[in-house]
Amino acid sequence: MSLAAGASSADLYLVLACLGFAALIFCHNRKAIFLALLLATVSVPLLKNAINEDRPCDGLLSCPDDSGMPSGHSAFAFIFAAGSLGSPAFWFFFPAALIVGFSREYWGAHSMAQVASGAGLGVALFFISEELLIYFGAIKRRTHWRVKRFVKKRILQMRKAKKVGSVVPAKQNSKQAKAPSVKKR
Amino acid sequence: MKELYRKLFHITFGAVIASGIYFLGREDGLAALFVMLIAGLVLIQWKLSGFEEKVIDFFLSKMERKVTIPGIGALMFLLGAILALSFSKTAFFAVVVLLVFAFGDGASTLVGMKGSHRIFYNKRKTWEGSLAFFLTASIVSVFFLGPTALLLCLILAVVESLPIPFDDNFTITLAGAALSYIL
Lengths: 185, 183
What we know:
The complex is a heterodimer of chains A (185) and B (183).
Chain A: H1 3-26, H2 30-51, H3 72-83, H4 90-107, H5 112-135, H6 145-167, H7 170-184
Chain B: H1 2-24, H2 26-48, H3 54-63, H4 72-87, H5 91-112, E1 118-119, E2 122-126, H6 127-145, H7 148-161, H8 168-179
Antiparallel strand pairs in B: 1-2
Helix pairs in contact in B: 1-2, 1-5, 2-4, 4-5, 4-8, 5-6, 5-7, 5-8, 6-7, 7-8
């Protein structure tokens, strides 16, 4: 068995473990990511069997035995990319997903169409699992981290304004502060 | 008015993608959709990070519903197209499914908003909307598939009216792809 063919089964778990560990630390919607991974684990082999499309197998001494459509590697990698959408972690997961996808095509384990199909399936599975979790009340609708930060900032500003306003209104306070300096002159 | 612009864009985008796939074929079509998916994800990320671009902002202000992820509607349509093309038996059938979805869904929303007869199993949809889906999609697809198109449109109109929690971009395209093995 060639290096690439041997790696195709082993490196999936290694890449998944690394990405999963990083996702645990950085991503804010872990539940949806893990449900999507679970759905992909079930659906990818089923779809491979149903579609039964051959791998290109150019550039490898021996190919993996199963069918090629869709690419499981790119499906799993793009789940993480979609899961990190809206957070700074996207700039780590997205290039990682692209590298995983294009490496499968470069090695000849998948055609570009199979990689594209896997990527589309991965992103779709993430959004499906997010919708499922929202429907069953497991998570609330996703709010983007920048929106959250903005809302927090506004709430803090309002609280500060209320505290100041309870003693002396903000405009009056500034006038009083300026007034003594005028008198002194 | 926003919904009208939104659905006109939906129909145009669908027709452009379907004709692109028709001319490019399955392999090149999927590769082109993959490039669009990559560009879409990067644009959404930029937009979420505060990036401002006049043309994109104009389209979003005119068409996007109040959602937390800007441009999610277009991304969902793109994902639907990838799923339809990947899992349909032939690229030709995927093109027909995309046309049915683009025209049918657009018409059903525009007509359904004015409708008053609610469907008993889904109170958010109306009979008028489902009928508009069936009629519009049949007119478009009958030129490609013949009488089989009527059955395809009827089943997809029923799928569109079901109270499924997923986005209809996924349900209709996946149902269409599954029907390509039966019809």
